[in-house]
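Lecture 7, part 2: worked example. A protein chain together with adenosine-5'-triphosphate.
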Amino acid sequence: MIKIDGLTKIFGEGAEAFTALDDVSLTIQSNEFFTLLGPSGCGKTTLLRMIAGFLDPTRGQLMLDGKDLLRHPPHQRPVNTVFQSYALFPHMTVSENIAFGLQMLKRPKAEIAATVSEMLELVQMTAMADRKTAQISGGQQQRVALARALAPRPKVLLLDEPLSALDFKLRKEMQLELKRLQHETGITFVFVTHDQEEALTMSDRIAVMNAGTIRQIGGPRDIYDHPAERFVADFIGDTNFLKAQMVSSTESGALVRLASGEEILAKAPEGGAPSAGQAVTLAVRPEHARLCERTEALLIGTLDNVVYFGTDTHYHVTMDGGGTFILRRQNQPGQTQTLAINDTVGVCFAPDTAQILKD
Ligand code: ATP
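Predicted complex, written out as structure tokens:
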């Protein structure tokens, strides 16, 4: 539905020129919850602002339902934005804030009243319809900002880190709420965040960005279980990186040799495994590994630290070949700790959970 092709934004000129977005191409489907995820300064907001029309690209194409969006100014695009700051009018009531955009569009009075009441119900703010927005909480303001942006029924709703001002609990609640709103309205959501957990819990698909480029696009599970490269594996969740060497590539996987000398069949990256003899990096998630007997271990090391997190415990192991490996085990009632710091321990993991990364 949204087709972005070769979109580039260069700020400044000559020696001052800075490429904030570098030849970005992607397609966002209708009715999709699509997230742009990446570290600060990677170009997420720049891309969002170009879809909204607040910023012109240096080059590239931007189509919505087959029409060239770049030919239309912001107010003519069927797109609305929810900002981090909400930008509500404090002297107006909740209802007046929601009605504002519809009045600007000169919609009939009866239609405005009906839409406002529908939106109030959608975001569960009917009881506060007549309160001034300066007199409601941050979470409630966020709901009003959403209702106001959804009221004109845009085809696309752009959300720029809309939950970042909320406290942890409210943020969790609003994550589910946003997902529900997207589902109920059928509007395409393009959501910007640098919070990987937020992206994983809400999105249909995620585009992971770094330094003005898209590094990987996929569903949350896809991105988490099959990171294409080191940056993605590192940015999303915790990951152990192991140095290994390609031995051979077979139909069932890629045979690699670990520093310990053990050979395992690991998951090849998309586009095929590197050739035999090549040095590669393996990514292993902490929850996919366990401490085990030395006789069956893939790696041997020394237990450095045990950190209790309530739901789970993290074990830090310094490997015999160098480097640290972190394992995560879910805590069970009545579980006792039998290991001591400086114990020699074995590390095991199912080979099919080890992902070979493109460097
Ligand atoms: P954050 O999560 O911190 O909001 P972001 O991924 O949204 O970051 P952008 O706001 O898109 O990042 O900015 C991308 C890069 O472009 C940054 O390095 C920023 O400093 C630069 N940039 C943005 N606007 C301008 C501008 N008007 N002139 C020059 N450089 C700019």
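The chain is about 25% helix and 35% strand. The mean pLDDT is 91. Keep this in mind for problem set question 3.
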